[in-house]
Amino acid sequence: MHPLRTRLWIAGGVAVSTALIAFGAWAVVTTPATVVVTVADPGDTPAADFGFEVTGLRCGVESVGPEGMAEKAAGQFCLVDLEVTNNSGEPKLFDSGAQRVQDTNGVAYAVADQAAVFLNEGSPSLLAEVEPGVTVTGVLPFDVPSDVRLSEATLTGAMSTPGVHVMLPDPR
């Protein structure tokens, strides 16, 4: 094969490989995270270890945390005020990251973990192990688009257990 032709094939192969890598990186960055929500059948006691009560909902919050370290929302933070009671006979860890909210179109959103740390510094909080019979309060932040209206939450003890649906109050 002619040396010039060989160089052209190599240059073409490098160009195609670079384009494929760039496309793959773009696809990974722009693809929204898939959220899988498992829903319990009526009559099940899917979160028997925990009891839940949503006590409030605040939306339109632009950032949370101390000045200079604040976590800014990509859209808006909707803050769900929550009481969690450990109904089991042993200490249990409430997995705040397993909780989801849904908007009026059925799109699910996960907890904004970094923002949750700023909102749940007290003790006991949603981020610590909950002793039997103890009720803890805290805030679950969700970073949602600015035009979204939340309608319900799926609350569960852990990611591996089905959750219970709770209708969310109107935001204050």
Outline, from the CA principal axes? Answer: elongated
- The Rg value, from CA coordinates, equals 22 Å
Number of strands: 9
The H/E string reads HEEEEEHEEEE
Arithmetic mean of pLDDT: 80
Instruction: Classify the oligomer.
Output: single chain
Residue ranges: pLDDT <50 for 5 or more in a row? 31-46
Spatial order of strands in the largest sheet: 5-4-8-9
Beta-strand content: 35-45%
Short description:
By secondary structure, this protein is an alpha+beta fold.
Written description of the protein model:
The protein has 172 residues and is an alpha+beta fold. Helix content is 20%, strand content 36%. It has 2 helices and 9 strands. It has a 4-stranded antiparallel sheet, with no helix packed on it. Strand 1 and strand 2 form a beta hairpin. The chain starts with a helix and ends in a 5-residue tail after the last strand.
Question: Which secondary structure elements does this structure contain, and how are they paired or packed?
Answer:
Elements: H1 3-30, E1 50-64, E2 71-86, E3 92-93, E4 100-103, E5 108-110, H2 113-119, E6 129-130, E7 135-144, E8 150-155, E9 164-167
Antiparallel strand pairs: 1-2, 2-7, 3-6, 4-5, 4-8, 8-9
Tag the structure with descriptive keywords.
single chain; 172 residues; alpha+beta; 4-stranded antiparallel beta sheet; 3-stranded antiparallel beta sheet; 20% helix; elongated
